[in-house]
Amino acid sequence: MTISTPPYDALAREKRARLRAERLYEQVKRELRAANDRLTEHAFALSDQIIAQREALCLARDRAESLEGVNSRYSQDLSLANERLREAVETLEDGFAVFDKEQVLILANQAYLSVFRHFPEVQPGIRYKRIAEICAFEGLIRLEDISEEDWVSKMMERWTSPTISPMQLHFSNGMSVRLVERRVANGDLVSLSNNITETLRYQSELIDAQHKAEAAADAKSAFLANMSHEIRTPMNGVIGMAELLAETDLNDEQRSYTETITSSGQALVTIINDILDYSKMDAGKMELHPDIIDLEKMIHDVLSLLTPNARAKSIELIVDYDIFLPSRLIADPGRMRQILTNLVGNAVKFTDSGYVLVRALGVGSSAHGQMVNITVEDTGIGISRDHQDHIFTEFSQVEEGACRRFEGTGLGLAITRQIVSAMGGNIWVESDLGIGSCFGISVELPLSPDAGPVGPVPLPDTIRTVLLISDQLISREITARRLQASGAKVQTATQIGAALRNISNSRLDLAIIDQDLGTEPADVVVSELRLHSASLPIVMMCSSMAEARALLDRGDLRAVLPKPLLWRDLLAVMGGPGPAKTTPAAPRPPAGQTTKADVRLRVLYAEDNKTNQLVFTKMVKDLPLDLHLADNGRLAVEAFDSLRPDMIFMDVSMPEMDGREATRLIRATDAGRDVPIIALTAHAMQDEIDRILSAGMNAMLTKPLKKSELLSALQDHAPQGLFPQAG
Q1: Which one of 146-155, 209-218, 361-370, 490-499 scores highest in mean pLDDT?
Q2: What pLDDT, on a 0 to 100 scale, did the predictor assign at position 590?
Q3: First to last CA, the chain
Q4: pTM
Q5: Same domain assignment for residues 627 and 530
Q6: Which residue has the higher pLDDT, 516 or 632?
Q7: Which residues in 355-388 are b (16+ Cβ under 10 Å) and which e?
Q8: How far apart, in whole angstroms, are the C-alpha atoms of residue 279 and residue 714?
Q9: Of 195, 210, 242, which residue is a domain's last?
């Protein structure tokens, strides 16, 4: 049976169904809306992506178009650069080639290929070894003393060498090249062939010109040496005879003439020496021969030689030697003396009054020795600033023109500069026109092994107060300073009145008097001192020893010392350390006993020039010796065999047999092994002197011969007891 549903139930169900449908619709609607939103967002995202990709694509397309243009431009530039490189390589005068690491030629210019123009296979693609084989086996290269195979092997060894040294190739057609090859980072080999044909020709011409110049310089030096010999030989007669004539009784006029001859002859010899020295230095043949020197004594000796000239002009010669500078140093004695003689000689020459001061200072030491400054200061005519710039150049004169008062070659200072430069030093000048000049040198001199201590030397206890009388300010101050440094109290005076007041006010232990006082004669000053103090020891500093000899012989003086004063001589006189001033007399032999001194010295003199024989004979005529003459070396050897002389003077240049050969023959005998042989020569070049001494000579005297040098040679080399020694 069917149960009917009430109407309100059906409506309720329908309403609930409708509500469910509405809720489902809303839910589906929401879901559709959400899906639509997502689709929209995705569409927007796809749209943005498409737009971005489109922009990137456009940018890529633009960039590709740009790169295509750049690439095209770069390709054009590279092509242009390659073309320019090829053109540049072709313009090279030298050969240029590039080989790859497989030794294949990949690039070569026409300068490189032109050498192989008769060999068409030499072009890019040929191997390095094949080119070497063509050079060797086809006769392109002069191989000298090497075979073709060895030369090719040598070239291939260069290829594999880590460092490829340059080499010279000489072609059969006369061309020469310098082959320079370098390997680059990728293994390629760059080869450059420099054409050096003209360079070698020019170099050969330079070498030939150098040889000719050296031959000309040698010829000039030989000519000057020979001319020196030829001039010195007659000058030996002129100066020697003038010196002998001066020892005879002459009136004042005759003595003046004789002295003029001597001084003029010595001036000529000096000029010859300057020219020889300059020639030798100009040829680059100056050599230094270092030896131990006594610098203080050397300065004193140079000044002593110039004392007569200075005394004639009333010039005071002064030495100031640094007490902290060692006197024994190492230098070339001859060259050092030459420097001092040139500088001091110039100072005396260009000074009419006043003084010449030589100052030696130690200015520090180094690993090699002692730095020494030597200055020569004068009160002469001075040098203008315009002349100071070139005073050390050749043939430069302080005075120019025909009105010059002073003679000379203008070489002295130039020679001095070269000597100082050869010693590693420097030279300078400071001068004011009309006031004076100061020349200085600075050199580094090694110390002698026995240089000894430096500094003040204490005086004996008996010397505490010293009176120094001198009106020469600088000399007086230097002597006083050294005395004070040695511990003495010094009282100074310029004239006898002040000196006598010093005597009355204090007790003096020693008086030192300068002979050249401007106020009173020195003998008057000594007499006045003796009246007030009869026992006071007095030492006189003398520029003329002969004038002070009478006072010394009378007993008024303890000693006379030459000016400029050598400090060690004064110390010796005062009883301090210094050289002995006297030589003890030899003991007398017993009565009736003959000594070797009773036997006269037998001297053989070999000389072909009759004038020189006469000069030598006259110089020794008053000496205790028997002189025998030989006209040449051969006769000298014969005379030696028969005479057996005690001493030989041997001229070097003689006919038939020269002195060197004669000396060698004499030395070859048992009797001639130890006989003293002194060479006499007019040559003055050092190489000639070396050859002379190497022949076996003991010493050498240069012409013009001086009597003082001859006496010194006799005293130094005569067998002991056969010639009197200087006392």
Answers
A1: 146-155
A2: 41
A3: 192
A4: 0.56
A5: no
A6: 632
A7: bbbbbbbbeeeeeebbbbbbbbbbbbbbbeeebb
A8: 33
A9: 195
Residue 434 has pLDDT above 90, yes or no: no
Question: What CATH number did the domain enclosing 683 receive?
Answer: 3.40.50.2300
Q: How many residues does the chain have?
A: 727
| Residue 727 belongs to a domain | no
Same structural domain, 100 and 81: no
CA distance 417 to 423: 10
Residue 215: how many other CB atoms lie within 10 Å: 10
Give the pLDDT confidence score for residue 197 in this predicted structure.
Answer: 86
Q: Say how far apart CA 534 and CA 531 lie, in whole Å.
A: 6
What is the C-alpha separation between 194 and 197, in angstroms, rounded? 9
Let me know whether 306 and 419 are in one domain: yes
Residues 33 and 112 in one domain: no
Element (H, E) at 444: strand 436-445
Task: Tell me the one-letter amino acid at 39.
Answer: L
Same domain, 177 and 214: no
Mark which of 445, 477, 494 sits at the end of a domain.
445
Task: Please report whether residue 581 resides in a domain.
Answer: no
Domain housing 648: 597-717
Rg, Å, the chain Cα set? 51
Q: How many helices (H) and strands (E) does the chain have?
A: 20, 22
Phi/psi of residue 67, each to 5°? -65, -35
Clarify whether residues 568 and 486 are in a common domain: yes
Q: Which of 398, 310, 90, 279 is nearest to 685 (CA)?
A: 279
Assess if residue 438 is contained within a domain: yes
The rounded distance, in Å, linking the Cα atoms of 656 and 632 is 7
The residues with which 540 forms a beta bridge, in sequence order, are: 513, 560
Helix (H, G, I), strand (E, B) or coil at 615: helix
Would you say the C-alpha torsion 708, 710, 712, 715 has a positive or negative sign?
Answer: negative
Looking at the fold, whether 564 and 666 belong to one and the same domain comes out as no
DSSP classification of residue 696:
T
Q: Are the CB atoms for 298 and 336 separated by under 8 Å?
A: yes
**Measuring CA to CA, which residue among 313, 306, 286 is closest to residue 417?**
286
What Cα–Cα distance (Å) separates residue 372 from each residue in 246, 295, 625?
A: 41, 10, 46
Collapsed DSSP state (helix, strand, coil) of residue 402: coil
pLDDT for 2 = 52
Q: Nearest-CA neighbor of 491 among 512, 519, 520, 460?
A: 512
Residues 308 and 209 in one domain: no
Q: Is residue 494 part of a domain?
A: yes
The residue type found at 677 is I
